[in-house]
Prior knowledge:
This protein has about 150 residues and is mostly helical. It contains eight helices and two strands. A hairpin with a 5-residue loop joins strand 1 and strand 2. It starts with a strand and ends in an 8-residue tail after the last helix.
Amino acid sequence: MTIWMVRPIYAAPGGDELAIIANSDGPHRLDVAIGQRIRERRRAVGMSQQTLAERVGVTFQQVQKYERGSNRISFSRLIEIADALSCRLNDLADGLDSKHASDELRHLNALLAEDGALEILEAYRRVRGKPLRRALLAHTRALGDLDKPPKP
């Protein structure tokens, strides 16, 4: 069952409120996506959650929640995180606002959420040469087919 809540996000001087509708089924896809990008950037620069937490003044548990998308990140905190990761805010948020990319983004986030997926991708990036990459991909696909029943 989906429960929808309306939360005010801005009260204008005249008292008018703009509102957003939030789904209580879980984190918003954009919160998850920005968290994933923070995680990717943090790992790419070789930074631990603890170090990032210290640089932005939160606990490492809070960084974990940001990266999972379970806690929303304020705009000012997002700027601090980008600064701590030596990148621009646009590097973290680019492309997240387009509606047509939501299915693709959801698919990519699901893939990257798999245990070990990011580590495999990082290792793949270090493989030099197209022939080696093609061989690695063929080998990985073959390993993925091992649990399938044999064709008659």
